Amino acid sequence: MSDKIKVESFNLFYGDNQALKDIGLNLEEKKVTALIGPSGCGKSTFLRSINRMNDMIPGVSTTGIIEIDGKNVYREEQDLVQLRKNVGMVFQQPNPFPLSIYDNITYGPRIHGITKREELDMIVERTLVQANLWDEVKDRLQSSALGLSGGQQQRLVIARVLAIQPDVILMDEPASALDPISTERLEDLITQLKNDYTIVIVTHNMQQAARVSDMTAFFLNGEIIEYSMTSQLFTSPKDSRTEDYISGRFG
Amino acid sequence: MEQLVTNQVAEQKRPLSEDLKKPLPKILQAERRGRVLTYVSSWVLLLILFSLLIFITSKGAAPFISGEVSFAEFFSTKWNPGENSYGALSFILGSLIVSVCAAIVSAPLGIGAAIFMTEIAPKWGRKILQPATEILVGIPSVVYGFVGLTVVVPFIREQFGGLGFGLLAGVIVLSIMILPTIVSISVDTLQSIPRHLREGSYALGATRWQTISRLLLRTSLPGLMTGVVLGMARAFGEALAVQMVIGNSPNLPFNLLTPISTLTSIITLNMGNTVQGSTYNSILWSMALILLLMTLLFVVLIRWITKRREQS
């Protein structure tokens, strides 16, 4: 398996505050990697570094390298539009735009220059089918996306991300605002999607990490403590801090 | 001091749940006093509003009821009070057109400034533009009128010929006056859009301008419209500054450079010079009624827009 994302000695500062310390890890293509760790450990910050969403926060500076397909996304000539088209992101709070379901899906493709009606129609159907939402919404594509349930909204957001045809999908605690049944459907969807996409998921829920991911990285205070196969990390962690965390002694 | 301490101890001993079941008489009294005060205030407000409505309506409807002036006459363009012609159509149209034009000029400027303040340079935008718009609100309308008279009117006279007084001068002065209304309401609307929507757009690879034009403007349209309509209502009701620059001739407002009149300018100019109870005086009340009805229409329009926003 080849490495899709390579991270080398990556540091991130909020002003003088170092939030990520010397992060280094390789993420394999078409695998699900879970980032776990207590609140404030830097896992979300790291996730947002991959598609450079942290750039929008004033006072953030970085050093080190994050390579996607062998190219450093922090190099000077990196096109942010292109980067974010390749690296989609799903947020903690379902954030459908207050537009119709159809317009939510086509928002990305339209931005990237697709205007033909038939083509957009095809994208809408394909992505909604992929996101297991088509049957629920096919009769009301023109009604507002805000009328959907939380779980449906989150799947719509995933469909919206799929519509820009990324290679990598970043998910920032995508199930934390969902009920158990919606969460289960979302996890099924993630398992399906990993056949075609490289997925990085931040989660608070260790069972979830164990269920959906192939690899797991444990973050603590801005550092990666342990990174290995999920089955290994949860059954025989090498570091005592990892063991303390996964057995629920803190966090 | 000692007493205070013992009081505190006594309060601590009594559980809160007891207190809530049986409030002290003192608290009850304060409660009642507060309620009476707010009730009285709201009733006074309603009373004033309704007496105003009734007063203006009865005064304004009087010339039509008594048959002194017919509706057809009133809604004609023939204005010559000396010969008993009281056609107010030019003024109604004058008010409408000057306000609509002012809103058309002001809306893009105001919304643009609001976008700058919220999306492009929030830091210094807020620091400089926010106080600047507040100052614009605080300037009395007579000052606007005076500046219009000494700067705008001569400028128009030199650039385009004519007297300088007229529709164009009115539009310029009014569009500056209503700018702060549009800016502040647009800023509030844009700021109320949650951050996660912007992030969602940026994360899909949208540029800032795409996010503004395709997402923010679309989702905040009802709020922005409310600001524009409120600005228009303000322009419609403005009297003093308009009267100083508009020219005050009973012409139809179809040329930017001709001096015209508005409902408000006619009322302020003539209210003091007419005899109470005369037809001329009553007709001015009818115009006031028209102003009131139009304002009401603006309010209804804003309500309708906000309601639609809540539904969507």
UniProtKB/TrEMBL annotation, chain A:
Stated membrane topology is: Peripheral membrane protein
What exactly does this protein do?
Part of the ABC transporter complex PstSACB involved in phosphate import. Responsible for energy coupling to the transport system.
Please name one Pfam family that this protein belongs to: ABC_tran
Organism of derivation: Thermoflavimicrobium daqui
List keywords of the entry alphabetically.
ATP-binding, Cell membrane, Membrane, Nucleotide-binding, Phosphate transport, Translocase, Transport
Any one GO CC term of the record: plasma membrane
Q: Which GO terms describe its molecular function?
A: ATP binding; ATP hydrolysis activity; phosphate transmembrane transporter activity
The record, for SUPFAM superfamilies, names: P-loop containing nucleoside triphosphate hydrolases (SSF52540)
Q: What is this protein called?
A: Phosphate ABC transporter ATP-binding protein
Name of encoding gene: pstB
